[in-house]
Amino acid sequence: MKKLKYWIKAARLRTLPLSISGVLLGCALASPQWWTEPLFWWAMATTVGFQVLSNFANDYGDGVKGTDALRKGEPRMVASGLITSSEMKRAVWFTGIMTFFSATIVVFMAFGQQHFMLSFLFFNLSLLAIWAAVRYTVGRRAYGYSGLGDIFVFAFFGLLAVLGSSVLFLKQIDYTLVLPAITIGLLSVGVLNLNNMRDASSDAMVGKRTLAVRLGFTGAKRYHYVLIFGAAISALVYALLMAEFLLNWAFVLAFLPLAWHLRRVQKITQPSDFDGELKKVALSTFFYALLMALLF
């Protein structure tokens, strides 16, 4: 039972609400009865699989490179020795295979043989998502160590999650959904940036050149303001374009807590204090997606 507890910690369940936000929003905006669709639940299961795979791979990659030895916040399992690197490597392989199997079911449920090109595209996107989840920290040229993590998070958590999940139902891109996709993507990058600001000093010591390390403490804060304000503007413009009164409430209820969050970020002087802000942005993102799904 104690080992199971370590695996649950390695899965980082607190990251799951953020990971499913884009898929929830994309499916809800594309299908009026989204919660009754088996395709929706398979898509959600696949998204969770990708996130757990990413968390396992991150624990493994940073653990074997020694990056997590000096990190602040919740201890990582490989770095602390609670799970061996070989055990975690096997878990990465197993989770990757199971997630790919789930993604394949989603592709065939959505497109089958009637939409061969879409099936082919999403099949390859599934492989790309697995590659991105693993190579964030694993390998000599892990892109997370070069400051490219923000781009990948914006693309996969925002654009691909919202637009891609809507295509599962619509069989085409609805370009009006680009704005909510940008909102989810920017907020997701905001969560990553908080994580990187917290770990900037230890990351710099081991050569992990995240964008927060490159920008410095003050620059990373300003970048964070841009991310949150950009997400708010995108969400507000979408609500106004849709001319739906209830969507304005979704905007207000989700972004009002983020205004207090920015005040808190402004006052932070110790990087370790950013850890408490991670949950606020992640849950606000999920809350926005859920409100939009229920009110649209």
Structural account:
The chain is mainly alpha-helical. It has one domain. The chain has helices spanning 2-11, 16-30, 38-65, 77-80, 85-110, 116-135, 149-170, 178-198, 200-205, 211-242, 245-267, 275-295.
Question: What value does the Rg take, in angstroms?
Answer: 19 Å
How many independent structural domains? 1
- Overall SS class: mainly alpha
**N→C terminal distance:** 43 Å
How much helicity do the residues have? over 70%
State the oligomer.
Answer: single chain
> What are the segments in which pLDDT stays under 50 over at least 5 consecutive residues?
none
What form results from the Cα inertia axes? globular
Number of strands: 0
β-strand percent reads: under 5%
What order do the SSEs take from the amino end to the carboxyl end, as H and E? HHHHHHHHHHHH
Note the total helix count.
12
In short:
With 296 residues, the chain is mainly alpha-helical. It has one domain.
Q: Keywords, please?
A:
mainly alpha; 77% helix
Write the layout of secondary structure elements.
Blueprint: H1 2-11, H2 16-30, H3 38-65, H4 77-80, H5 85-110, H6 116-135, H7 149-170, H8 178-198, H9 200-205, H10 211-242, H11 245-267, H12 275-295
